[in-house]
Amino acid sequence: MAPPRNVVKIAVQMPDAIPQLIQLDQAKPLAAVLKEVCDAWSLVHSERYALQFADGHRSYITENNRTEIKNGSILCLSTAPDLEAERLLGGLQSGSRERRREALQHLVLLTPDVTFAQEVISRDGLQRLGTIIEDGDDLGEVLTLALRAFLELMEHGMVSWETLSIPFVRKVVCYVNMNLMDASVQPLALRLLESVTLSSPALGQLVKSEVPLDRLLVHLQVMNQQLQTKAMALLTALLQGASPAERKHMLDYLWQRNLRQFIYKNIIHSATPLGDEMAHHLYVLQALMLGLLEPRMRTPLDPYSQEQREQLQALRQAAFESEGESLGTGLSADRRRSLCAREFRKLGFSNSNPAQDLERVPPGLLALDNMLYFSRHAPSAYSRLVLENSSREDKHECPFARSSVQLTVLLCELLRVGEPCSETAQDFSPMFFGQDQSFHELFCVSIQLLNKTWKEMRATQEDFDKVMQVVREQLARTLALKPSSLELFRTKVNALPYGEVLRLRQTERLHQEGTLAPPILELREKLKPELMGLIRQQRLLRLCEGTLFRKISSRRRQDKLWFCCLSPNHKMLQYGDVEEGASPPTLESLPEQLPVADIKALLTGKDCPHVREKGSGKQNKDLYELAFSISYDHGEAEAYLNFIAPSKREFHLWTDGLSALLGGPMGSEQTRLDLEQLLTMETKLRLLELENVPIPEQPPPIPPPPTNFNFCYDCSITEP
Fold this sequence. Notes:
The chain is of the alpha+beta class. β6 and β7 (572-578) form a beta hairpin.
């Protein structure tokens, strides 16, 4: 008899005692369960004991988490958490270094458990650990264990980081700034300062003033992955807590000290794999780098700014240099303004006054920055792109300025410029650490890609939004590959032309419908025989129902009808003439019979004798697609039963049914359509329970066989 649902079978063990196998009633109070366990081992004062999981973090069992106990769980009987906390905290005050070390080791093991952590914190355990850290009498294992236990307790969130004292924080800063320090201490000290910086603005300012950026650079250059990761964590925390102006100053200083190059060469391309935590911090650093563009992105062009007007003129002159030089000689002011307006329109601005195009926010001044960067750092490509499109007269010109404004918006969206950092994301792009001015360089590649795609699509101004959608897809797909350099990005994005984008869209649509996934294809193949059997059964049932056919005389008159059907036992074809307008005859009233066993072959189209005899007139050609015949033995001669189907559908049904009777394949177009429809419906029904569940491309690997097969289970033995 199976135990009730709220009863689980578990084992309870204790050192130097025989384990107990008990049935734990989850409805019974935990104190009563403890009393029974202690009584079985003749232990008094059950309130001094507690149950723990024997594996993992050895969490204490409480009324809140007892539902985690499952059948087969192994628990152990141990000292109650309050008594254990009191004992270990007493050990911290011992004069014996060895006893303090042992107490700290046990604290580190137990502090991840929230029940034990509450008991330690309620007994001023944080203050006692803080005293050990501040005193710094032992800079080795004892300090390491104290920092780990302190961090575990703080990360439960029961005590705010803002309650830490300034002397304590300064002491931890000293551990970070020391040159000769145990390798296990500094990562923990950096981790503690990171939490302080992110949680307390006031203490974060203290950390920022006390920990020099150069010191963090030293830690980053040490070939210790854990130390590098924690130093990067503190660095990103300091950058996040800084004001935009301070952040820009800090990043400029770090870039001057070649941090970008070091990250690219020694961290991203390190021989050791990049950890998830470091990947997250690099994502944060990339987001903060790109975030420096946000002020320009949010600032519209000021038409009264002399500097910005000069930048626009420089953009125009870089494209139309020869014409721009001639503007200043012998022209009136009105004529000069008219020529400038015309050249700005050639440049691709929607208005004769370009300031109106750049008043949109975003991208604001960032679009102007991108266009200027392109014109100054790739002048030949810039001139070629602008002149190529400004001189076209076939309405297929690509407007450079309008495209640049929209492309800047697109890049900001893809790279999430100005958006807050995610707490878990790791999707940084290595190429942004591969060179300076990476955003502007990416724009230079992207604007040339846009022009190439525009020509491939033979687009006009009306197709502008369609082109931008394709360019978005090209950029998004290439960025998702995380190319390691801008040159690799350029190669990959140019290898993704418009035609390839269309092919990928079609392939993905089919995959979403489940048509091309290997497991779905395999399932469809397994379903085909069964469904072909259903189609065969339907075709034979249709033959049993019978059909009215018309006879065609030599004078092309179709005034005679005859009826043919298959007998229920599928052994006879029965047929006979019927009158116009009469109801279908019964099986017994049909005078003619043809045994299926006598049928030799099925003929269709031009092979049918009744079509062949009529010649090659136009009317006969119309009958080819509806004609079929069956040849059979009639004595010593070969005879034919000729049909002209009333419709194409009846033709397919009868030819399929007769082929099935003769043991041949049903190869009509109607069979293909019916099979596809049935496969689609059956596949969707089979996969209803897997909706929104990703189906793997490959089946899971088959585990290796056991080392021996010397095992069996006697099903006749029942549990008591």
